[in-house]
Structures are given as structure tokens and as C-alpha cells.
Write a structure and sequence with these properties.
The structure holds two protein chains of two kinds. Chain A has no helices and eleven strands. In chain A, strands 2, 4, 5, 9, 10 and 11 form a six-stranded mixed sheet that branches. A five-stranded antiparallel sheet of chain A has the order 1-3-8-7-6, with no helix packed on it. In chain A, strand 4 and strand 5 form a beta hairpin. By secondary structure, chain B is an all-beta fold. Chain B is globular, with a radius of gyration of 13 Å. Chain B starts with a strand and ends with a strand. The chains are: A mainly beta, B mainly beta.
Amino acid sequence: GENVEQHPSTLSVQEGDSAVIKCTYSDSASNYFPWYKQELGKRPQLIIDIRSNVGEKKDQRIAVTLNKTAKHFSLHITETQPEDSAVYFCAASPAGGGADGLTFGKGTHLIIQP
Amino acid sequence: DSGVTQTPKHLITATGQRVTLRCSPRSGDLSVYWYQQSLDQGLQFLIQYYNGEERAKGNILERFSAQQFPDLHSELNLSSLELGDSALYFCASSGGTGGLDTQYFGPGTRLTVL
């Protein structure tokens, strides 16, 4: 089955700086890669996703890049703000989100230092 | 608010008991997914139902079962509970066409087994 590795497990950045979280996956058939943000005790909330027919997607301060050859994808957050502090999860789905469950990374605890 | 609802929010029970968790998907969504989140295992996919039929299975124990009803709500049944079953249980829903669907998570049910 699919295996998703995520790093770092903890990332501390100064407010206003950029944060980058990286994930690798094992199944070359994976073609859907969402990122979720989870605050303590709350539900995972989708912040951005990318499908394998594109290499990059941007939504305001958040961007995701995908390298299918190397089987890795990354989340970039620019101009970080205190409300960005949370745990971020990457995920991959081999058959597409509608036909299979998501395989998640272990999560990155992002801490924004004021 | 994702539009996915789950009840109850909290559940405290004893080892050996059986519980039922309930999920209502977003209006119009045909797929329901169940996930377990624990400190040691992270977020793990358990099972998916699409329009009443089981579609995909993940790391679901034999003591656990699920079903999706004609009104599309779903129930996850956990029996012979063990201390290690204590976790957050999330359901998610998607449009369920079998393509590259986005999954939206509910608020979760926190299960504590004493």
C-alpha cells in the first residue's frame, strides 16, 4: 500500500517568515495530494490540494508543488501569521479521493514565533 | 463548518463494551469515509462507503464494522472495546463519483475506553 513520509515533525519560524513542509510518497499510482490543517481537538481542514496533472498550485499565501518523477510534494506558506500555528498533514490517494481512502503523513507541528 | 456532522462529540465507555458512532455527510455527497486518529498511529483510513455499498477498506479491525443507510448517513460500530481503541474518530464525505474528490471532515467523536 501507499506510504507517506512527512518532515519535519516540528517547525518553528518567526512571524512573517516562510515555512516549508515536505512529503514523499511510495505509490507511483497516487494522483491526488491534499494538505490539511488541524488545530488541537478540531477536525482536519483542507487548505489546498493538487492533482497529478499540474506541478504547482497557489492560493494567496499558500502554495503546493508536486514532483511526480521524484514522488514528493511540498507545502509553502509565506508571510506566516500567528493563526498559521497548527498541525499540518499531507496525504496521498492512489485511485483518487473518491475511490480510496487517504494515506496521511505523521504531521508537522508548525509554531509561529511572535 | 464543513457540512459533515457527527454524533456524539464525546463517548466514554468501558472495555468489552460496544458503541455506535454516527455520521451525516454533506448534502449531495454519496461517499462516506471513516478515519481513526490516535497519538501513536496518526490518522488512519478505516473504511469507505459509496451510495450504500462498501467501496474500500483500510486498516479496520474485525471488531469494527460500518454501514451506510439509504438516507446516506453512516454508522461505525466498535465492539469488544479495548483501551487502545481510545481515539478521535472522524468521518469525511465526498461527491463520490470515483474521481479525484476532495474529502471534507466532520468534527469527530472522541472515544475514551476506561
